[in-house]
Amino acid sequence: MVSIDSFPEWEELREKFLSDPKVAAEYEDLRPQYELISQIIEARIAQGLTQAQLAERTGICQSNLSRLEGGNCNPSLELMNRVARGLGMELHIELRPAQRPQ
């Protein structure tokens, strides 16, 4: 049986992967998506909601919320706005100057 202690720590793996410039660039391109997903999950958990309960509030299928939280879909702004409202929040989108050279 394999012990969980035998697996590398996340930070160690992250550092290793991000040392590859191609991986680092892709990671940065996906950062906004994963930051938004993290905010959704954190807000849902903070409110003590399951995905099924949020699905009921929003009228979105629980399986679609699961795909959204797993980063396995490309949601529309309409869907994101419905999720935000279901969480009692507002969706705000803004453009900022790039932090890295393009």
3D architecture notes:
The protein is mostly helical and 102 residues long. It has one domain (9-86): lambda repressor-like DNA-binding domains (434 Repressor (Amino-terminal Domain), Orthogonal Bundle). 60% of the residues lie in helices and 0% in strands. It is globular. The chain starts with 9 loop residues before the first helix and ends in a 16-residue tail after the last helix. The model has no long low-confidence stretch (mean pLDDT 90).
Terminal Cα span: 47 Å
Helix content: 55-70%
Total number of strands:
0
User: Quick check: average pLDDT?
Assistant: 90
CATH topology: 434 Repressor (Amino-terminal Domain)
How many domain modules? 1
Structural class: mainly alpha
What is the H/E string?
HHHHH
- Annotated CATH homologous superfamily: lambda repressor-like DNA-binding domains
The CATH architecture can be named as Orthogonal Bundle
CATH class term: Mainly Alpha
In the predicted model, the low-confidence regions spanning at least 5 consecutive residues are none
Q: Helical segment tally?
A: 5
The radius of gyration is 17 Å
Most strands sheet: none
